[in-house]
Amino acid sequence: HPLCSPWFHFAAVQGDLAVLFEAYRQFFLKDICVNNESRKPYIFYNTWNKQERSRYYHNLPYLHTMYLEHTLQEIDIAAKMGIDVFVIDTGWYNKTGDWVVNFERFPDGLKTVKAKLDTYGMKLGLWFNPIVAATTSDIMLTHSEFRMNLDGVDNFCGPVWETEESWGMCLASGYTDFFIQKLIALHRSLGVSYFKWDAIGQYGCNSPNHYHGTDENTPQERQDCYSYQMGLEMIRIVEAVQKQCPDIIVDFDVTEGGRFVGLGFLSVGKYFLINNGPYYANFDIPKEIKHIPDTINVFFYPGAARARICRQAVHYDSFIPSILFLTHFLPDKPQYSQRNTLASLMLGGNGIWGDLAAMDSDDIALFAETIKEYKLVATHATAVPVKATGFIGSSPEIYQKLDVNACKGFVCFFTHGAGTYQTITEKINTDNLHTVIGADSYEVSEHGRLIITVTLAQDDSRIVFIR
């Protein structure tokens, strides 16, 4: 095979390191990716957290709500909130590998779902594990040689999220071309424009019959080569699908350990950075400590702590746009938690999940009004790097995402301790300043800077929109 190298970037700018970072950030936002759909500040909803709640709160199957009626109900609520992309997580399919709609759950094959999304101008997204195929799937029956094999043992995965038993499939094999065609077909037949990838481990195959070595190589060499080649194949899949379907977006969930992480995949898609937060083991919490319900993840619950963890990607925004690190926040009461969610997700996470059906009219209105204001400035805010004051968990913790020339963007305030806090923006083009929403008070200094003041309760937050 011809050599395909990792990315090598060389750059020169006239200025200091901050100027270099900003130039690199613009390169990553606009130029490295042929298809820029993944860079747009859409608001995403994913059904998974509701599915987890069925399991953990009510001891029901993960797929208990994976039916047409419930999905349509959530779409109606998501539309009122201002969601742009509605992602149906695991369980929409009959079996892995075939990736055909489960007609018992969606009798018309998602046609009604897609039609309703179209009326609201929303995009359809679906969940995939790209490296599994069910025992009776077509690809397994015709090409079982593509199975992942480690030291002579095929990778048996068992039932995948309450569906048929499946086997691991090697991405560095002929299986990849099959999967490319499957995604293209789903885009054309169902109108899927968002593909959520999950559970792709970087290790696990040292077969001598695939594209990562032969019998002339040692098993360890073949395994190491797989961990390298499978990452390149992930990128190739997205590039190939985007050539045929230029409006698609692919995200890859890197929450768990052992995942392929690097700048390469961000050249074609985005990362799903955090689902329900770190696992207990990441905090050295003793195994005998049990939460009821035992959700495995630490930050499964609403509150300021979860938002603090989940907005960590803002630290990348100086040189890699935080819009590339999708993170889902909870819309649940109490209101201070909802305000933390809204202020945090607008820093680039842009994701929501939870129990939409449990939200009341006040909850929906809060999200709808805030997201509406965000969309008026979102493109400008995404285009500029964050300016931060304080650190996550400090009082105050302030972020500016403000295009000073167009005078469009926002300032997010967070605090642990109650108090009155003030920030001074960069110099703005005062001729373009028309509206400031969310501040308790503000003024324009003689040097053309906005001086913004807010008063916050403990663990509260505030978004100040500037137009």
Keyphrases for this structure?
467 residues, alpha/beta, 11 helices, globular
Structure overview:
- This protein is 31% helix and 21% strand.
- α9 runs parallel beside α10.
- The longest helix is centred in the middle third of the chain and has 26 residues, at 219-244.
- By secondary structure, the protein is of the alpha/beta class.
- The strands form five sheets. An eight-stranded parallel β-barrel has the order 1-2-3-9-10-11-12-13, surrounded by five helices. It has a five-stranded antiparallel sheet with strand order 14-15-16-21-18, with helices on one face.
- It has eleven helices and 21 strands.
- The N and C termini lie far apart (53 Å).
- The chain is globular and about 75 Å long.
- The model has no long low-confidence stretch (mean pLDDT 95).
- It has helices at residues 17-31, 48-58, 68-81, 111-120, 138-142, 175-190, 219-244, 263-266, 304-310, 335-349, 361-383; strands spanning 44-46, 85-88, 123-128, 132-134, 149-150, 153-154, 156-159, 165-168, 192-197, 249-253, 270-274, 325-329, 350-352, 387-389, 397-403, 408-414, 419-427, 436-437, 441-444, 449-456, 461-466.
